[in-house]
Inverse folding.
């Protein structure tokens, strides 16, 4: 746009300074505008040199074209092409307005050089901006990956510490309580005093309640420390079927959902191996903003066996587990066997 405006200015200057007849000026102006537009479209250094030389030849027969010649030389990009300027210079000397021509030509060359520098700097600045933007995006992506990795490491460390504490409680306090319960049982059997029977029974009940509490706490911690993805991968690798696993779950999954999905996957793999002719099975685990979903589909073709699988005891247990978590469960025995489970997240259930 800047180059076009500069050319227009030089064309207007030439039109103002022209002294020949109107017909010659109009013809020269049209030829100059046509060649300039063609060169602007081609944007080639060689084409610019050829077009400028052609217009110089036109000026030999139509001297009024010299007034518009500066508008064309703005596009000259190589100094070797400056030899073309000898032709219009000789014509201007012949027509006795060499000084005006030399001034306008010099000004046009300076403007062309400045415009090329501006274009070069603009291109370099744009490339620098693009590179900076690309590097910023790469850096942001790597930062997000680093934060995600740090979160996984922190979560894994917490789970490992919980597992260690649960193991220590089970191995130490649990064994002590078991010994206490056994000793109280022995004391209760050997007791002959009726007035101590109630107290011994109470102590035994308290110790058993403490043991149950510790056992439940240990189991809950172990369930939370369970790596669902790794466990499902082990099931996939140990299965005789060709298992296609698509895992889209986060690290923060409730323990009861983990256990439910594992039970379902184990049951589905067992059913597909024992009660159908399936060779492949697809397991899709996906987490959404408000729910967890599990889809299991095999390629079994034995409809009779598939129909029996729909009403098996294991599937009833699956349905009970899912309903206990407030979810939904559907079975389909047509064209293989399909299990689809949706379990809402606790926040959604609370609402």
């Amino acid at each position: 746009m800047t180059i076009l405006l500069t050319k227009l200015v030089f064309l207007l200057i030439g039109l103002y300074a022209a002294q020949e007849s109107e017909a010659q000026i109009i013809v020269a102006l049209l030829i100059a505008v046509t060649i300039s537009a063609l060169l602007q479209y081609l944007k080639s250094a060689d084409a610019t040199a050829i077009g400028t030389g052609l217009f110089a030849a036109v000026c030999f027969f139509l001297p009024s074209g010299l007034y518009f010649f500066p508008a064309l030389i703005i596009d000259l990009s190589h100094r070797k092409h400056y030899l073309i300027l000898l032709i219009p210079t000789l014509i201007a000397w012949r027509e006795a307005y060499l000084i005006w021509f030399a001034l306008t030509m010099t000004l046009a060359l300076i403007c062309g050089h400045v415009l090329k520098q501006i274009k070069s700097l603009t291109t370099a600045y744009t490339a620098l901006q693009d590179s900076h933007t690309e590097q910023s995006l790469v850096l942001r992506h790597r930062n997000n990956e680093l934060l995600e990795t740090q979160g996984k490491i922190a979560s894994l460390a917490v789970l490992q510490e919980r597992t260690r504490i649960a193991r220590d409680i089970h191995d130490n306090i649990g064994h002590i309580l078991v010994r206490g319960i056994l000793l109280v049982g022995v004391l209760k059997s050997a007791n002959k005093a009726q007035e101590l029977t109630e107290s011994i029974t109470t102590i035994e009940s308290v110790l058993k309640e403490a043991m149950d509490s510790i056992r439940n706490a240990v189991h809950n911690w172990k369930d939370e420390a369970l790596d669902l993805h790794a466990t499902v991968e082990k099931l996939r690798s140990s299965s005789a079927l060709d298992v296609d696993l698509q895992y889209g779950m986060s690290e923060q999954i409730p323990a009861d959902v983990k256990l439910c999905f594992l039970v379902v996957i184990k049951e589905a793999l067992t059913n597909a191996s024992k009660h159908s002719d399936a060779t492949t099975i697809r397991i899709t685990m996906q987490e959404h903003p408000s729910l967890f979903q599990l889809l299991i589909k095999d390629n079994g073709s034995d409809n009779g066996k598939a129909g029996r699988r729909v009403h098996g005891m294991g599937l009833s247990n699956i349905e009970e587990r899912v309903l206990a978590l407030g979810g939904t469960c559907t079975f389909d025995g047509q064209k293989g066997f399909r299990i689809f489970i949706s379990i809402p997240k606790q926040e959604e259930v609370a609402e």
